[in-house]
Amino acid sequence: MKVWPVQHAKARFSELLDTCLKEGPQLVTRRGQQAAVLVPVRQWRRLAQAAKPTLQDLLLSDVDRSKLQIPSRVKRRSRAARLIA
Q: What per-residue confidence (pLDDT) applies to 85?
């Protein structure tokens, strides 16, 4: 992984992006401190998917289920009843 100071990353963003796509993640630093990583979108999606627990993982975990953040259900429009003659 190549390290890019933020000034170089800004000035040569196209080169940073091309390097990321060819060689993989690229690290951007600000004042010598690690600030961000540019990763190809395919790798990002894989990492994001791996970070999500499955339903099985949630049910088998020791976590108090009352503290789980469950998304609200979407209200669905019901269809009008059809009369059969």
A: 65
